[in-house]
Design goal:
The complex is a heterodimer.
Chain A: E1 4-10, E2 13-19, H1 25-33, E3 51-54, E4 57-60, E5 73-75, H2 87-94, H3 104-117, H4 123-129, H5 140-151
Helix pairs in contact in A: 2-5
Chain B: E1 3-8, H1 11-18, E2 23-24, H2 31-36, E3 42-47, E4 55-58, E5 61-65, H3 70-74, H4 83-86, H5 92-97, H6 100-104, H7 112-120, E6 123-126, E7 131-133, H8 134-139, E8 147-153, E9 161-166, E10 177-182, E11 185-186, E12 189-190, E13 194-198, E14 205-206, H9 208-214, H10 221-230, H11 245-262
Parallel strand pairs in B: 1-3, 2-3
Antiparallel strand pairs in B: 4-5, 5-8, 6-7, 6-8, 9-10, 10-13, 11-12, 13-14
Classes of the chains: A alpha+beta, B alpha+beta.
Chain lengths: 157, 264
């Protein structure tokens, strides 16, 4: 099977990778690029663990054809924070919003997408924003509280 | 056999490439799932034609490119009548990916928007450029070819269309049933009633018995009760993981009544 080259921006840096026909973005990021932050959950669009931002919009990497991200800008949880944690990461820690942690990267990216477009969301808007992300530990309340903490500025950005 | 992806710059090329043996990749929320599962093999066609993602006002309605996402419809002020429908589909990620064209091909329990388009009497534009009534498409979806755009009418009265979805999980639940009602009025009486539903048959359906009960009537408690009572006549609601056939039959009228009462 012929490999196709794909170039894109990942967390602000230009990247190039090869993709196979039919390969999804999640697989290319994890195996081809080595970004293990988006998680492999259901591979059918139900769980949200693979949520990444594509040109700022949250999408499900498992349902995106890898070659279709040619020229696009991707953000993953690996790009959050540098020397210090991102305010969302800090708030998730403070609120103990990660139990097993598997949903956390997807939750963080869904929350980031929300706060990018709506810096002061209501509780209902937070719930709506993470409605595509399942937490099988069912720890939704601390996650909602952490996102609202950042939104209300209790976490210094 | 492996998956072979073919990218085409124009709708015309994609249409020709599709033939009878290939499948078309839109937003990916249906087909990529099947590719991941190894269910889909062989040629997969996609197109980057910008016409597929455009929304244009035309004549007495709108032409919505088949690749327009739920999010793009939700952000389009003139398509406000469709907002309750598209906002009830999936979570934010799915709405950013799933397309209006793809929803036409969605299997149960999906297809809320397809049923709304059925109620609105939408016309579907094929790769050949002809616009055909949506009913023709639902008679044989497998042989539809490439749908490139969807014509929806402009509503003369914004209260003539309403949507009601019943799901066990909120937000982001799939439909146990959903109803879309298009009730144009002429001198106070209902003329050209069309009701679309999912969850009461093998795919999006019109609720003909309820439509007949309302046609020519004034929308009041009496006509609503008759429509609610008759709604599942001639239908075979399915039993699946969400609900039994018996349950759907029992509650369909209750939910149709709630929707219609909002439209009085």
């Amino acid at each position: 099977m012929a490999l196709k080259p794909v170039t894109f921006i990942l967390n602000g840096e230009p990247k190039a990778a090869f993709t196979e026909d039919g390969q999804n973005l999640l697989d290319m990021l994890r195996r081809g690029v080595g970004d293990l932050s988006p998680k492999y959950g259901c591979a059918q669009g139900s769980c949200g663990a693979c949520t990444v931002l594509i040109n700022g919009e949250p999408q499900l990497a498992c349902l995106v054809l890898a070659e279709a991200v040619e020229g696009l800008s991707l953000e993953t949880a690996a790009g959050l924070g540098n020397a210090t944690l991102h305010p969302l990461q800090e708030a998730f820690m403070q609120r103990f919003a990660a139990q097993c942690g598997y949903c956390t990267p997807g939750m963080l990216m869904a929350a980031k997408a929300l706060l990018n477009t709506n810096p002061r969301p209501s509780r209902d808007q937070v719930i709506e924003a993470i409605s595509g992300n399942l937490c099988r530990c069912t720890g939704y309340e601390p996650i909602i509280a952490a996102i609202l903490d950042v939104a209300e500025g209790r976490q210094a950005p | 056999m492996a998956v072979i992806i073919e990218k085409h710059a124009t709708i015309g090329e994609a249409q020709r490439a599709l033939g009878s043996d290939a499948v078309y990749l839109g937003g990916g929320t249906i087909l990529m799932r099947d590719i991941n599962a190894g269910v889909v093999q062989g040629r997969v066609i996609r197109s980057t034609d910008p016409a597929l993602t455009q929304i244009r006002a035309v004549g007495d309605g709108f032409e919505i490119g088949a690749g327009v996402t739920m999010t793009a419809i939700a952000q389009h002020a003139e398509l406000a009548f469709l907002h309750p429908v598209v906002r009830a589909i999936g979570g934010p990620q799915i709405r950013n990916m799933a397309t209006i064209g793809g929803n036409l091909f969605a299997e149960p329990p999906y297809g809320d928007l397809a049923a709304a388009l059925l109620a609105l009497g939408a016309r579907l534009v094929t790769g050949g450029g002809q616009a055909r009534p949506i009913e023709e498409f639902f008679r044989d979806r497998k042989r539809a070819g490439l749908i490139t755009a969807i014509h929806v009418p402009r509503l003369r009265d914004s209260k003539s269309f309403a949507f009601h979805k019943v799901s066990r999980v909120k937000p982001k639940g799939v439909s146990v049933v959903s109803f879309s009602a298009f009730l144009p009025r002429d001198a106070g009486r209902l003329r050209g009633v069309r009701i679309g539903c999912i969850g009461l048959g093998p795919g999006p359906l019109r609720a003909f018995s309820a439509e007949r009960a309302l046609e020519g009537q004034v929308l009041d408690q009496a006509s609503i009760s008759r429509a609610a009572q008759l709604v599942t006549d001639g239908m075979e609601p399915p039993t699946d993981a969400l609900a039994s056939s018996w349950y759907r039959r029992e509650v369909a009228g209750v939910h149709l009544k709630r929707l219609l009462e909002r439209m009085i």
